[in-house]
Write a structure and sequence with these properties.
heterotetramer; B: 246 residues; Four Helix Bundle (Hemerythrin (Met), subunit A); two-stranded antiparallel sheet; 8 helices; 2 strands; 73% helix; D: 323 residues; alpha+beta; Helix Hairpins; Immunoglobulin-like; Cytochrome Bc1 Complex, Chain D, domain 2; five-stranded mixed β-sheet; 38% helix; binds heme-A; binds dinuclear copper ion; binds copper (II) ion
């Protein structure tokens, strides 16, 4: 860590040097800001929806507008934010640094992947301008083949983003296999790398199927090919198989990077060797694999065969076991450590709390008999927000706070960050916990209004629960917003850290072997491995920032 | 840069040596092949399921395909696979001219393949053997014999054509339009791959002619080769599944 | 680096191509004899063999890093999962309640197709049909 | 527990509802235990081992595994999960095995109403009436897109597919009126596709059945029309106050009486009895400009008298609005 002041943010200069960059860190940053932008749009749509749902009638938006809002909210959050942007941002920035590599295996492909993401995003913006789309993010046929909204634009966008996702996955796989610095064996890899590796495997195996599904859907609209359209002798349930063969594994594309982030944050901020390294590493791979066998649990009421119902229900439970191993290992990592309550750690702890709720409610849904009651009610909505927002997004925010000083060489205001972390926790539970109750009482999802249910009592009950959910969603939105603004505010000029900074005293290579922000070529000298990523029992690195 | 001075100019800066670069590219290529297999895989799933549901539809519609053209195309593709492999073999031995020739033959084979496909498609378009909603073919005999009730009956008996007495209209049984949807999408996607392959082979020819590829560095050719063999491999399945068995 | 890479002898390539041509002939020939449902099994066996040969020799998997072969076999495995589990649905519907086994109207399948004959059983002129029969499903 | 059930769930009306709620409680309590282990463990460890002001940074323990503990991570969840699986499947099989002697009712979903056909030939719209303590087998199908037939009090739900049947059954053990929801997104008024389930004691059901379809015979046309307006679900798409939903408001239509209506193909048609009649029987043939071709046909669902009644009702609107 010599004193040259060159870093990837300032060298080289100029807008073109960013747009044509092959540097994984810069591509990662572009993903980061792209993702945050769409998170913001998706979040605004969510708040609008919450506002509309606060009262039973359709007084704020019309039915059609509401239907378009929830579809765009779901599709944007999933296809433009959590699937591409999180591995794209944190993964891109960190993977080569953690491997001691100069770059990912295929830098050009990496840039191409980002541009495909951009093109896909443009399609989505076009869809928003041209009046939206109302099929739900699941595009079930035959509704999606006859809807008059812009289904073509959306499917095209998803198709293109799918390729972006495939290229990222392919790139990461080659990188992990071939670009590790000498001496960095598989069991010395940081767990975040294992997580990205698992994610990438899912990305390249599942994503081609969504690509072909989208093609078939587009052809169905253009040519009426009839494969999924019952009017032409096709089978709509087959479409659901196609869709979920991708989209169930896709939920593990969303959560595995989050698992990786948590596996980094907890040992570092507890200054303790991670508990059960190999279990965590292998559970990543087994989750990735088992995730391919359970897609039919989204179709328990579709009329698929009883045999499939039983098979899918059975295998679904098995995802819970490796996941549980992770949860317990993270918890035990703190045992005999030195836990500091920094912002990343607060996010990680709230992840443990929220994801456990989300995951366990997944088990409720996996039980066929119970899922028949709960399917397509707000119980499912609450489940997936607990795992996606409470799991992935909270972990992502934690990771962002953890690696922010690394990526930018700036430190945010930690007190504000801590307050926001608590605000997110409270706001989140307040928003989505009531939705479990709504779902149990039968409130269906994708309902623009609920004023004519034939029972005043029921309407009043739903309205009260929806009302409190809406109230807390304001707190949630505000906390996330201030949290992100706090990060952005730290980027101002006057705020600078020493390039050698290691604020948490971490031992992974991106902290110990390069500057913050890193050198354009990552490492000034070939990195030499001196210790494992979690050897807090052998090595002390003084945190450069004390609270 | 930290490379020693001797590193060749085709080595990208982020690799340690040429071997790492070569191996990495190949691994990336194979990962890509996996995505290709699963893309086509989705269509194979559709094929399998509809075939299991409507075996008779597949049997009848299969008779409308021209085995000879399919067979010729199979032979053409296998030949092109051979020449592609030989192109790599030649470049490994630094026989640049030979390699170029082999690439050229491969390219011609691909062109021939697409030509034959074009003729096939053209014929089907003409007859109305189109995918989905646009399917309109009912068999040449039907159109001629239609006003002869007895013949209609015998035709119905033999050919799975349904004559609805109420509306007095003819329908084909068991939706052959879905067969044709699957046929056109699968062969069409395969054809698209052939066309992309042609572009890649043309690019290889340019690189080889310019001397950029040689025994010491032919990663591009190896990668395109893998792609091209995959195209062949998929056709190896499409041929019997569509043309031969019913 | 050429020393380090395996160079397959010309003879191998020619032999492989010969085998492929031969198997193509066999599969065509086999399709003309009626073996019942065994026809498809046989055809797929032959195609599988051919594919295996292409992958091992032409695509150099035999001499490659075993990782690549693993990836390839893995892709086939995932495909098998996709087909296999989907078929546990499509092949077993209606086991408990037979009503759900088949579509209500197998022919409906095609009900918006073009009527070929007019009300008296005479062929219609094609152009005209195209507009009438379009879109409107009911 | 009963209090909790009352709070958490809709009433338990079917014979299997109780079993399903119990399955819920089993998973629920098991989850609470697991959840508390995680959260209490986490909070305890985080506080016990927290880094206090003035502490030195030191090397920490190298402890990172414990075989017994790790085995428990697998075994305990495995046991819980297997119980859940067996229970879940057992209940599920109960839910799909239709008992003998069930009454078969055909249910058709169409945008955005439910149509019921009784075995004796009666048909109703959006109003399902069933006898108590009798298994009811509903055979579902759709005329357009996917819907899903959901009766929360029965804990029963099944997707409604076009060109395919799906089957579901339930039996009701308490008389009353309960909502039926559509839970598969089906377009603009998906949230308005709500039906009513009326459970009657057997005797009352028989009386209802005998009267169904004929009960309204003695009503004057206008009143019958007004009744049909909600009964046949016209109100999901047509209002009476002038606001356009999916279809034009009846008020607007009635004010156009005798005048020319512009259709979407550019032609126009005079609004009169014949036009209204064909609008109901063959709605796809004449589409009012600015609207989509989504109105289902009522061919076979309205008899002549009912058609007349609706027309008569429509005509009254104009007069009302002029007062
Ligand atoms: C990040 C995304 C994510 C993740 C990680 C998960 C994780 C899981 N999900 Fe979820 N799910 C979604 C996103 C996700 N899901 C989405 C988006 C939908 C709705 C899509 C739509 O319809 O729009 C959905 C819907 C959904 C359904 C369909 C519901 C319906 O529509 O009717 C089901 C049913 O089985 C299900 C199950 C599960 C299970 C079993 C897990 C498991 O992986 C959870 C495992 C975790 C735990 C179990 C907790 C920790 C473990 C322990 C504390 C140990 C003890 C454990 C046991 C005893 C088992 N999910
Ligand atoms: C990653 C996935 C994700 C995330 C994060 C969220 C976040 C939220 N979601 Fe969403 N949701 C989905 C995925 C997600 N959702 C999906 C897939 C569906 C199903 C769609 C379907 O049915 O098809 C759904 C459906 C859904 C529904 C059900 C709609 C219905 O069925 O009728 C509701 C209702 O309350 C809801 C609410 C919310 C709320 C209040 C948030 C809040 O947490 C949002 C809070 C966030 C913000 C307010 C943004 C703040 C961001 C910033 C401030 C960034 C700043 C950056 C810059 C300034 C550059 N969501
Ligand atoms: Cu019908 Cu939703
Ligand atoms: Cu799932």
């Amino acid at each position: 860590m010599s004193g040259t002041n060159q870093n990837y943010l300032t060298h080289p200069k100029g807008i073109m040097s960013w747009l044509l960059t092959l540097d994984h860190k810069r591509i990662g940053l572009m993903y980061l800001f792209g993702g945050l932008f769409f998170f913001f749009i998706g979040g605004l749509l969510a708040l609008g929806m919450r506002y509309a749902l606060a009262t039973p009638e359709a007084d704020f938006v019309t039915n059609d507008q509401y239907n378009s809002m929830y579809t765009l909210h779901g599709a944007i959050m999933i296809f433009l934010f959590i699937i591409p942007a999180i591995p794209g941002a944190l993964g891109n920035i960190l993977l080569p640094l953690m491997l001691g590599a100069k770059d990912v295996a295929f830098p050009r492909l990496n840039l191409a992947s980002f541009y495909l993401y951009t093109i896909g995003a443009i399609f989505f913006i076009y869809v928003m301008i041209s009046g939206g789309v109302d099929t739900g993010w699941t595009f079930y046929t035959p509704y999606s083949t006859e809807s008059h909204t812009n289904v073509m634009g959306t499917t095209m966008g998803v198709f293109i983003i799918g390729f972006s996702s495939i290229l990222t996955g392919l790139n990461f796989i080659a990188t992990v296999h071939k670009m590790r610095t000498p001496g960095l064996t598989w069991y010395k890899l940081p767990l975040f790398v294992w997580a990205l590796y698992g994610t990438s495997l899912v990305q390249i195996t599942a994503t081609p199927v969504i690509a072909i599904t989208m093609v078939l859907l587009m052809l169905e609209r253009l040519l009426g090919i009839g494969i999924f359209d019952p009017a032409l002798g096709g089978d709509p349930v087959l479409f659901q198989h196609f869709f979920w063969f991708y989209s169930h594994p896709a939920v593990y594309i969303m959560i595995l990077p989050a698992f990786g982030i948590i596996s980094e944050i907890i040992p570092v901020h507890s200054r303790k060797k991670v508990w059960g390294y190999k279990f965590i590493a292998y559970s990543t791979l087994s989750i990735a694999f088992i995730g391919f066998l359970v897609w039919g649990h989204h179709m328990f009421t579709s009329g698929q065969s009883v045999l499939s119902q039983i098979i899918f229900s059975f295998i679904t439970y098995f995802v819970g076991i490796p996941t549980g191993v992770k949860i317990f290992s993270w918890m035990l990592t703190m045992y005999r450590g030195q836990v500091s309550f920094t912002p990343p750690m607060l996010y990680a702890l709230s992840f443990l709390f929220l994801f456990t709720i989300g995951g366990l409610t997944g088990i409720f849904l996996g039980a066929v008999a119970l899922d028949i009651h709960l399917h397509d009610t707000y119980f499912v909505v609450a489940h997936f927000h607990y795992v996606m927002q409470g799991g992935t997004i909270v972990a992502f925010l934690g990771g962002l706070h953890h690696w922010w000083p690394k990526s930018f060489g700036k430190m945010y205001n930690q007190t504000i960050a801590n307050i926001c972390a608590i605000g997110v926790f409270i706001g989140f539970n307040g928003t989505f916990f009531p939705q479990f109750l709504l779902g149990l009482r039968g409130m269906p999802r994708r309902y623009a209004t609920y004023d004519a249910l034939g029972s005043e009592e029921l309407v009043a009950q739903y309205a009260a629960t929806h009302g409190s959910s809406t109230f807390f969603s304001g707190i949630l939105g505000l906390s996330i917003f201030i949290g992100v603004m706090n990060l952005l505010w730290s980027l101002r000029k006057s705020n600078k850290l020493d390039p050698g900074t290691n604020p948490w005293g971490a031992l992974t290579m991106e902290w110990t072997h390069t500057t913050s922000p890193p050198h354009p070529h990552n490492f000034e000298e070939e990195p030499v491995l001196e210790h494992g990523p979690y050897d807090y029992d052998k090595v002390i690195v003084q945190p450069t920032l004390k609270k | 840069m930290s490379h020693d001075k001797s590193s060749p100019d085709h080595l990208y800066h982020h690799f340690y040596d040429v071997d790492q670069q070569y191996e990495t590219s190949k691994l990336g290529m194979w990962a890509f092949i996996l995505t290709e297999v699963l893309t086509f895989g989705g269509l194979f799933v559709a094929y399998t399921i509809y075939r299991a549901w409507h075996p008779d539809m597949f049997f009848n519609a299969n008779l409308l395909l021209d085995v000879n053209k399919g067979l010729i195309n199979t032979i053409v593709l296998i030949a092109s696979s051979l020449t592609m492999a030989l192109a790599i073999w030649a470049i490994q031995l630094n026989k640049r001219k030979l390699s170029l020739l082999m690439l050229f033959i491969t390219f011609l084979c691909a062109l021939g393949f697409l030509g034959i496909k074009y003729v096939e498609y053209e014929h089907k378009f003409h007859l109305g053997q189109l995918p989905g909603e646009y399917y309109s073919y009912m068999g040449p005999e039907v159109v001629q014999q239609i006003h002869d009730q007895e013949k209609i009956d015998s035709y119905i008996a033999s050919n799975n054509i349904f004559f609805d007495k109420e509306t007095n209209r003819l329908y084909t049984m068991n939706n052959p339009h879905i067969f044709f949807s699957i046929y056109f999408i699968m062969t069409g996607l395969h054809g698209l791959h052939v066309a992309i392959g042609m572009g890649l082979i043309a690019w290889l020819m340019v690189l080889t002619a310019r001397g950029r590829l040689h025994a010491g560095y032919y990663t591009h050719m190896e990668a395109v080769g893998i792609f091209w063999h995959l195209v062949d491999l998929i056709w190896i399945f499409l041929f019997p599944l569509f043309y031969l068995i019913g | 680096m050429s020393e380090e890479h395996h160079i397959t002898p010309l003879k191998t390539y020619l032999l492989v191509a010969g085998t492929l041509f031969f198997l193509t002939a066999v599969t065509v020939w086999a399709s003309y004899i009626d073996l019942g449902s065994f026809n498809i099994v046989l055809a797929l066996l032959i195609a599988g063999t051919k594919a295996g040969i292409v992958a091992t020799f032409f695509m150099h998997l035999l001499w490659d890093d075993k990782k690549n072969a693993t990836i390839f076999v893995g892709s086939l495995m995932f495909l098998a999962i996709f087909i296999g589990i989907t078929m546990t649905d499509t092949e077993f519907r209606g086991a408990v309640n037979p009503e759900i086994k088949d579509p209500i109207n197998k022919r409906a399948a095609f009900y918006n197709s073009l009527p070929l004959t007019d009300d008296h059983g005479y062929p219609l002129d094609k152009e005209k049909n195209h507009h009438e029969g379009d879109k409107d499903h009911h | 527990m009963d209090r909790l059930t009352e709070y958490l769930f809709p009433k338990q009306v079917s014979s299997f509802a109780h079993d399903i709620d119990n399955l819920f409680y089993f998973i629920f309590y098991a989850s609470i235990v697991l959840f508390l282990i995680v959260v209490i463990g986490m909070v305890y460890l985080a506080i016990k081992y927290r880094f206090k002001k003035g502490d030195d940074i030191r090397l920490t323990s190298s402890l990172d595994h414990n075989n017994t503990l790790e085995a428990m991570f697998f075994i305990i969840p495995l046991i819980l999960v297997m119980i859940t699986f067996v229970w879940g499947i057992k209940s599920y099989l109960d839910m799909i095995t239709v008992p003998d002697g069930a009454i078969e009712i055909q249910v058709k979903g169409q945008k955005w109403a439910w149509i019921y056909d009784y075995p004796e030939g009666q048909n109703t719209m959006n109003e399902l009436v069933v006898p108590m303590d009798t298994p009811i087998k509903v055979i579902l199908s759709s005329t357009d897109v996917l819907h899903s037939f959901y009766i929360p009090v029965m804990r029963a739900k099944m997707d409604v597919l076009p060109n395919r049947y799906n089957v579901m059954w339930f039996d009701a053990n308490q008389p009353g009126e309960y909502p039926i929801f559509c839970t598969e997104y089906c377009g603009t008024s998906h949230s308005g596709m709500i039906g009513k389930l009326t459970v009657l004691p057997k005797k009352a059901y028989e009386i209802w059945l005998a009267e169904a379809g004929s009960a309204d015979d003695d009503l004057p046309l206008e009143e019958l029309g007004e009744k049909l307006y909600t009964k046949k679900a016209c109100n999901t798409c047509h209002t009476l106050d002038g606001t356009a939903l999916v279809g034009p408001s009846y008020l607007e239509t009635s004010q156009m009486w005798g005048q020319e209506r512009v259709l979407d193909n550019g032609s126009s048609v005079v609004v009169d009895e014949n036009y209204i009649r064909s609008s109901m029987l063959e709605p796809q043939t004449q589409i009012v400009a600015g609207y989509q071709n989504v109105m289902p046909t009522y061919q076979g669902l309205l008899n002549d008298r009912e058609l007349d009644a609706l027309i008569a009702f429509l005509k009254t609107l104009k007069e009302d609005s002029q007062i």
